[in-house]
Design a protein that fits this description.
By secondary structure, the protein is α/β, with parallel strands linked by helices. It is about 35% helix and about 20% strand.
């Protein structure tokens, strides 16, 4: 699954992109699927069952995108609150569709004991164009920081700050795809003026935890639930996943606060980032969606 490194067609090797290169990149992007059709219509169908609110709108030269958050109607201030985020990277399909499926099939089953705040698609332009970045060539999942350069991050952080909710759990739904090596890592290297080096793409599901607050039992509970749906990724010959040392089977970790990752944006005690592998010959798109649902359910079962 390792692909050969290649020179990206935009920019000059060794020179970081300027505005001209970023515009050239943006102009090369095309719409490949429809946010309204695949996301908003599903939310509209679920509206009678949940509290669904627009929390902002992305304002780009390429278009405007309304953003929505879902909560359970039987909100109880005495219950702990679970935050689920999907579509931080819009191209990671099961992150979005898995979040929607969790809302539709499981959220109500646990709302007696938990409050839920679910952002099913933080990056709708990325979803439509199948992109990791936003239109400004910024990676949202490195931008959950003060004065964020990404509208997607700033809007969700502002909403949570205004809501003033104590979050106990945050599960962020992602994928690792073959296109990480064929497109996104080469593009990142070109943008930064660096030499691209690809990593091995893990075949299977794994988690990314916070190395400064790993909560290993919680991570293991999530993996055990997912294991019933799809296979857990094996470490490569160097004992790594995406070039990171494995903490335990199916789990790696990073200092998420310093990296500006999504799971750093609250003070939640339990946090994890899921990584599904949709290009596996051993998994279907529906299994990938179900694995995302299982990840959230596994975390909830651990806390009950």
């Amino acid at each position: 699954m390792t692909e050969q490194n290649r020179i990206y067609p935009i920019g000059t090797p060794g020179k970081p992109w300027g505005e001209e290169e970023k515009m050239q990149w943006l102009q090369a992007q095309t719409k490949k699927r429809d946010y309204r059709e695949q996301v908003l219509t599903k939310l509209e169908a679920m509206a009678p069952r949940f509290d669904i609110q627009q929390y902002g709108s992305l304002e780009y030269s390429v278009g405007q995108y309304p953003l929505f958050v879902v909560r359970n109607k039987n909100w109880n201030s005495e219950n702990p609150t679970v935050l689920v985020t999907g579509g931080v990277h819009g191209y990671e399909t099961s992150g979005v569709q898995g979040a929607l499926q969790f809302i539709d099939t499981e959220l109500e089953n646990y709302s007696e004991h938990f409050n839920f705040v679910v952002f099913p698609c933080l990056s709708p332009w990325g979803y439509e164009t199948i992109n990791r970045w936003n239109p400004d060539a910024v990676d949202p999942n490195r931008s959950f920081i003060d004065d964020s350069p990404a509208q997607e991050c700033a809007l969700v952080m502002e909403h949570l700050e205004q809501a003033d909710i104590d979050i106990l759990v945050h599960i962020d739904l992602h994928e690792t795809t073959d296109s990480d090596n064929s497109e996104f890592r080469p593009a990142k290297a070109a943008r930064e003026g660096e030499v691209n080096t690809n990593w091995n793409i893990p075949d299977g599901f794994y988690l990314v935890g916070d190395s400064e607050n790993l909560q290993l039992d919680f991570q293991q509970a999530v993996l055990n639930e997912v294991r019933q749906v799809t296979h857990i990724a094996d470490a490569d010959e160097d004992g790594k996943l995406i070039d990171a040392t494995v903490d335990t089977e199916g789990l790696i970790s990073f200092p998420v606060n310093s990296l500006g990752l999504c799971i750093s944006m609250t003070n939640a005690m339990y946090t994890t980032t899921t990584e599904v592998y949709p290009d596996s010959a051993r998994a279907t798109p529906q299994e990938c969606n179900q694995a995302q649902v299982a990840a959230v359910v596994g975390g909830l079962k651990f806390l009950q």
